[in-house]
Each structure stands twice: as C-alpha cells, then as structure tokens.
Amino acid sequence: MDAFKAVFWSFFGVRKKAEYDKDAKQLTPQAVIAAGLVSAAVFVLVLFGIVKLVTR
Amino acid sequence: MSAATHAQDHGHHDDHAHHPTGLKRWLFTTNHKDIGTLYLWFSLTMFFMGGVMALLLRAELFQPGLQLINPEFFNSLTTVHGLVMVFGAIMPAWVGFANWLIPMQIGAADMAFPRMNNWSFWLVVPAAILLVASFFVPGGAAASGWTLYPPLIIQQGISIDMTILAVHILGASSIMGSINIITTILNLRAPGMTLMKMPLFVWTWLITAYLLIAVMPVLAGAVTMLLTDRHFGTSFFNAAGGGDPTMFMHIFWFFGHPEVYIMILPAFGVVSAIIPAFARKPLFGYASMVYATASIAILSFIVWGHHMFTVGMPAAGNLFFMYATMLIAVPTGVKIFNWIATMWQGSMTFETPMLFSIGFICLFTIGGFSGLVLAITPVDITLHNTYYVVAHFHYVLVSGALFTLFAGAYFWIPKFTGKMYNESLGKLHFWLSVIGFNIAFFPQHFLGLAGMPRRIPDYALQFAEWNMWSTIGAFIFGFSQLLFLYNMIECIRSNRKAADNPWEGADTLEWTHLPSPAPYHSFETAPVVK
After folding, report:
1. In the predicted model, is pLDDT for residue B515 greater than 60?
2. Which residues of chain A are within 8 Å of residue B316 when distances are taken between CB atoms?
C-alpha cells in the first residue's frame, strides 16, 4: 500500500521530505516497480472509463 | 548529492594507459572515454550534414516557386534530414555523453562491456554511410518523410532498402548500448552510491536505456515488415493484399513517441546537473525529479495515437489519446517547476552552460505548450501536417535536445580535455543560436496557423514573408554553429589549463574526485560515497 501511495505522489511530483525519507527506508525497488506497473494499468483503465462515460 | 568520504588519489597511474596509437587506438578501443569521444565527433559530423540539408530546404523555401532544387530532391532532403538528426546526431551524442560520464559519475573504472561498447559505436558508422550514400543511388534517397509511411515507401527504389538496413543497424547498436548502460549502472556503482544518490544524468540514462530496449525492436519489426512487403510478396501494409497501412502508423508511433523521450530525458539529466552548479544550490526536489522521469517514461507508451488523430480512429480512441497526452504535461511541468525552484534565490552566474540551460527551459516550455495545443483532437485535425507541427517539434528537439547538448559540451569540456573553452565565444554562440533559432522557428507557428502544409517545396504567396524570415533565421542559426566547432577545436588546442573543478557548485564525482583532464582509467579504486 505504501508503494502505491509513493507512486501516486510521484506522478503528482510532490512529496513531503519526511514521507520521502520514510519511503526510501521502507520500500524496495521491486515493490515500487510492481506498484508503478499496476498503477499505470489502473491509470489507463480510469482514462478509458472516463472516455466511455463521455462518449455514451 | 554525492559527498564522498575518501579523496581519491589525484596522482593516477597514467602509465596504465597503454593503448595503441593512431588509427588503431580508435578502431580497437574499449575505453569508455575514447568511445565517448568517437560518438561525440561522429554526432557533430552528422549534425553538420543534417544541418546542410536543412539549409538547402530553407534556401528553397526562401521564396515561393521552385528555385534551387527539384521537388523529389526536396522530399529526400526532408526525409534524410530528419533521420540523420534523430538517429545520427542527437541519439549518438547522448550515447557519447553517457560513455564519458556514467562511469565517472558512479565511481566505476569503465563500462560493464567494453568490447560490446566498441562494437556499438562502429556499427553506427556503416549505418550513417548507408543513409548518406542513398542520395547517390538511382531514384534518390528515401522521400517519404522520416516516418517511412507505406504505401509511398513500398514504391521507391533501392534507397529504401538502404534506409531500412541503416535503421536496423542503428537499432542493434542502440540496444547493445542500452544493455551496457543498464548493466554498468546497476552493477558497477561505487560503495555507498545507492540508486537514490546517483546524479540525475545517470538516472535519466537508466530510464532512457530501458525505453530504448522496449521500443527499438518494435521499429525493427515494422521496417522488417516493410522489407518483406517490398521484396517477399507479403501484404502487411498493402491494402490490395488485405493489409492495412494504418497498422504501420500505429507500430511506428508506438516506437516514435517514446523515441521523443529517448532524445529528451538525458537532456533533463544534463540540465539537472548544470542548473544547481551555477545556482550554487542543491537540485530542488531530487526525488520528485526521479519519479517524474519514470512517470514520463511510462506515460510515453500510451500516447502514440496523438500523432494519428487525422488517420481515422474511433472517437473513444481520439479522446483517450487526447487525455493521456495532456496528462503527460503534469510530470513535465514538475520538472520545469523544480529547475526554476532550484534557481530561486540562488547565487547565479551565467556562464555558457547555464545560458544554454536557461534557454532550454524557456524554449522547451514553448514547445511543451504548443504540444498541449496539438494534443487537443479537434485543434490537431486542422493543424495536422502544417508548419505548426514543424515549429512544435523543433522547439522540443532543438531547444530541448540540441541546446542541452551544447550546454553539456561546454560544461564538461574542461573535464574531458583539461582545457577551458573561450567564454566570450561561447556566449556569442548562445545568443546567435537563440536569436537565429527563434527567427527560424517562431514564424512557423504563424505559417501553420495560416494553413501552410509541411513537406512542400513551393507554397502560396500569402506565406512568402514569414518563410523569408524563417530562412534568414535558419541561416543565422546554422552558421553560428561553426562558432561551436571553432570554440571546441580552439579549446582542445589551447593552453588554457582548466582547474579540476572549474565550476564552484559542481559536486558530482567527476568534479570532486578526478583531475582535469580525467585520467584514461577513471577510478582504479572505487571511491566510497557517504
């Protein structure tokens, strides 16, 4: 869950220093990459959902 | 960012630098600095070749009517100018910087696969020869635009096969280079150099290398299908045989859009090194820069359709690509914000590398905004294939990639050669470039908005005035690049000794731990990074 949070904030591009330090200590690169790929897929699906909604 | 504990012994054992001399040194070299130098000179040569092609195009467009060259040759020049600049100038130049800098910035002795490194470079030379030689074969060079769209490309002569082969070779070289870079970064970092302590140039190249490995095989697949359509009776892209030319466009742009980021991400890394050095402040938001680079890389795979709004897609497809493209502005905006925040209240000085970096921020932002305009599907439908698009991607790639290449060259040339370049000449180069560039390309926005199509040798009279200005600007820009060449050669031959760290604010390993010029083998003993 922490990995997903980190990926979300990284997309926005802003992260509190304390939170970032916590991430840097706790998260493994594997977890971040996995969360990143899943988040990218979710991102595509959300966009697709919005498109479906407006073209209905 | 990377404070190291042990000062490296500056008295490097240069007697270790046994290597053949003369031509053999360059042919057989496995040294990352030699190979970096080869890449940089190669790309500069190709840059001037592509530049001459561009000036021929602009000379023809100086006035309406056909004056200097015939339309077929004009189309060939347009195509090969694009291919040479993308594959021959910008990409190899970044690989040159990667070769020079990555081992020094992570505290390694050399690249992970030195022999493959040599092979990666020497592959690009025959590819370049194939591209340039294709002008001299019957039918002339490829004339379909750098996108190589069928069915046009299926109809032309042997030059297309030469172009396809060149693209294949360049792709193989890029993939080998990428494997080398990834392995070097992941395995050869000095003790203590954790991933999140790496300089941003190393980070951006790591991500770029993954992008290259992901998309180069896609391009190779696309051009192989073109080849079999041309010679082996397949019909992948031939509607008469049941194929579909639009499929090529999808495959090409699935490669083509990440390719834009392949050319621009290392630029972000260079600017992230230069701005803190001349603002004398650490980079603002280092971690968010890394994250933003990764986000841009992932998003670059899901926006390719914005190159094809007029091709014919379902409305849902158009909308998807429009939304995705607009969202890519978020991480890019974060980067621009971070660079400006780095400069905020810094003790700034404006040496040539800083000037080119600030020029990059201003002009790349204009290119980004015109990209947002083009991302809006209904707007793109009117602007597609007009000069507005030409203006947009030159703002992105010239002021994005090229300006930062100049910035990087001026910034690191003291480390590369141990000599200092001529600052006044560097500043003159910057100002002539920025003025010439804007005169050349800003009016192209107006031309595009007024409806002038791109890739045409002749045009209607109402476009005459801005075309004249554009050509004048292009010639100012083009000829001012000779100043760069002169400045670099003069620097190499001069006696102006550069200090080990001539830039007050530069704090990466190559500045803090290595003398100028950097020794043939950078780090015989890995430094320990705190």
Report:
1. yes
2. 48, 51-52, 55
